[in-house]
Amino acid sequence: MDLGLVLAIGGAATAVALSGIGSSIGIGYAGQASDGVLSEEPEKFASLLVLSVLPGTQGIYGFVAAFFVMVKVGLLGGSPVTLSDAQGMQIFLACLPIALGGLVSGIHQGKVSAAGVNVASKQPNEFMKAVVLSALVETYAVLGLLVTILLLLGIQV
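^ that's the sequence the OP posted. Answer follows.
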């Protein structure tokens, strides 16, 4: 296996791993806050589930980026292409916006969602405001994914 392909696969793995770590930490924060409320108010499960799940999307975005890489380099349904070291490095670097953006935004979205759990528990009518505030953090993961996809599309293999 040539170094270019190894770098490309490393980029895909980095996108999945870092965004997945951010999501799991974020879900952990929101889930812990939700569990505390659910111990006394189990009827609020549905709304708290929404807030707990929101930080999980960054991991999905990392998976989407990795899928784009795997298709681009022929790992799915074909034979792998031969990549120069420079092309492999370009693909690796193209994966960094969602990898790092997903890591950081997943963690912080979890913190905002955990705070939103408190809002939803004390003022259920304000639940959607908590969701909107949490979704604002996700905007930057979406932008990271978009930049990753645009960069990948621009790399000639």
